[in-house]
Every structure is written in C-alpha cells, then in structure tokens.
Amino acid sequence: MTDGLLDQPMDVELSNYLLDGSYDLILSIGQVVPHEVVGMANYTKNIVIGCGGSSFINQSHMIGAVYGMERIMGEADTPVRKVFDYAQEYYIDKLPVEYVLTVTVSEGDKVDILGLYIGKDRECYERAAKLSQKHNLNYLQSPIETCVVWLDEHEFHSTWLGNKAIYRTRMAMANGGDLIVLAPGVKRFGEDEEIDRLIRKFGYTGRENILALSKSEPDLAGNLSAAAHLIHGSTDGRFNVIYATDKLSKDEIESVGFGYMPLSEALKIFKPEELSTGYNTVNNVSANYYKRNKDWIASCARDDEEKSSITISNGEPIYYIENPALGLWTVK
Predict the structure, then answer these.
(1) In this structure, what DSSP letter does residue 14 have?
(2) 237-251 per-residue burial string, b: 16 or more CB within 10 A, e: under 16
(3) Residues 214-255: pLDDT tens digits?
(4) Superfamily per CATH, domain 138-332
C-alpha cells in the first residue's frame, strides 16, 4: 500500500459506541474536500479516524507524511485511503453505517451545497470526490509570491489546525515566497497539552529532520501523529511562513520555526474586510517586517544576523484566501 515506505502492522481501532450492536443505523455525515493526510476527506475517514483509536490515527498520519503531501492532496486514491478501504472491507462493512457526504463552496458567510451523496459503498465517495476536485481545487497560472490567509478566530485556535494555511497552499507557493497567516484566535500550538509540548520541543524543522527524530527521540516515536504534523507544517526552507497573532509571543512563534508579525501591524496592511479571494493589490501602504530564513530553521540559530527583511510595497499583488479548510491551491 505504501510502495515499501512502511512495513508494520496496524490495529483497526473503533469507538465502542460504533460496536454497541444495538443500533439499526449509524449515519456518518461530513464534507468531502481536499485533505492533507488522506487526499480527499471524509467517507471512511469519519469512522477510522474521527471515531478511531490513537495508534491507527498515528500510523495513518505517518503514512501520509512519509509518502508525501504533494503526491496525496486532492487525490481520491492514495496509500492512506487504501488502508481505510481495507478497514472498510473487513470490519466496517459489518456495521450498519450509511454515509451522507456533501460538497460545498463558500464565499464570505454564504455556503452553497453543490452535491449530496448518500450510500454505504465507495461509489458515493467517488462521486463526491470527483465533484469536489472540480470545485475545491484552485488551479493558478503561476506560483504565488505573497499569500495572505485568514484564520477565523472562532474556528482556528492552534497551529495544529491553523497550519491548513500551509498544507493547502504549499503546491501553489513560489520558491522563496511569503505566506502570511492572519491568526487572531491562535493561542497555542497543539490541541492538547502533550501535542503542544512536542511541537514546542521539536518545531517545524523539516521533513528529513523530523523523520530522523521520530526514530531517535522516544517521545516523538511514541506519537507519530505529532511527527506527521510537524512534517506537514514544515516548508523545508522552500517558502517562508509568517504568523500574525497577538496570543502567542514573538519568541514562541520563532522557536518553532516560523516568522512573526504583530497582528495589529498585519491588519493595518492586510484588511480582510477589503480583500476578496484571489489576487488583490495592496495600496497606500509600505511595510517592512522580518522573517526567519531557511538557514535559521536548519540550525535553530537565534542571532539577528539570521533574519532577512521583507518589504510589502504599494501596488504589489497578493493572493488572499478566506478559509484554507475549504480548498486546495496548486499551479497548473
């Protein structure tokens, strides 16, 4: 399933509620959209991950990280999905599960449902995935030099979720480009204390480095979903990520490998209420701020000489994304 990249057993673990035996029907309701781990979200992912046990979740995340997000995102058939299909065939098919899958697009507060697929077998997922690929994959003519992503403060409270801004744009970002993440609600790194600790300890320091650490460091080896997340959130020095938040300090943000910008300063330059999804022109401003370069990420040096300046000038085009969770951006 993984082309020889991983060779180890996996336990299929499901919530006891699903195995209760007294239910006539279990409805799994969710949205099909490009996803950084499995390729296209939902269907059996709702069961084996959403209602699954930690070891299966951890190992499936590691499969996706090792295989490579660029080979997975937006694809309906991936090594991770094959593992889920195996679990469906040999275990989940015995349960009275019916899938209710939607495909949506949004603009501002308006959400349109383009498709509704209901069924037990893989056909409803395949049809939903095909429609999502048509409407949720955004193909650009050229790589993005400066990208600004808004993270709604009611939805995104951690980089664990907020890094969708990185996952979903990485195939569209130009080498050396700048990704500015406006994150008013991000106040921690992990969704729980242990994940938060691991992110703070190891940082988003590159795929090869994290893979090596996941073998040599017991606490990271024991939490492969954290290792996979750190790989997903690393750019390997190809482009720069600048988090704009006022709930985490500059030192905290820079300690995990990102650049920092005060949220108040960022909102003076990039006004979400005035921007529309796609290319915009920043007018009447000129701002300098600092980013950490790839040498710093590799060496974890902290002196100011490792910083380099970015300038946003009048009339410079930026690409704006209102909600990174609802799409995938790539270059034709």
Answers:
(1) B
(2) bebbbbbbbeebeee
(3) 889 999 988 888 998 999 899 988 999 999 999 999 999 999
(4) LarA, C-terminal domain (3.90.226.30)
